[in-house]
Amino acid sequence: MWFRKRVTKEDFDKSIKQFKQAFSKIKSEQKKQNEELIKHSEQIQTNSMSLEALVIVKPTSRPTKHPIKLPKPQLVETHLNTGESINTLRINDFTEKEKGILNTLFQNKDMSLSYLDISKVLDKSPNTIKNQIREINMKSEVLEETTDSTNRKRFTLKKGLIIEKPLD
Q: What helix, strand, coil percent values describe the chain, rounded to 5?
């Protein structure tokens, strides 16, 4: 035989109070998550703007498969204190594709670029860029490598590299 327990006003009030506390905790957690979401959204917007600054706008008259050919600088590493030349890099030692990567890094020397960033600028696969950067590193020591907070490798040209004379 089933018996129904009679709910007293005190039990009912206690249940309502527990419900209100649980609801309050949920609302405060939701507020924290919304604030975090806004912070992440702002960070994505900032990073997106930085990436847009990297992307070179291609003229509509060119096919989309081919990147714009940029002027190729000749780079010289100079000693910062004496101005004495340590290592002259012959730009002709690099392939056209490697020159494109060096040029991209030179044009964006204020920023550290990842494989993905460079690949978007040059319209190539990130794996291709990775292999070409490996080849550049084997030929010379012009790149500084760092790792960002997401464990992505980022590259910049070493400090002290200058254009001795632009190639025509």
A: 50, 15, 35
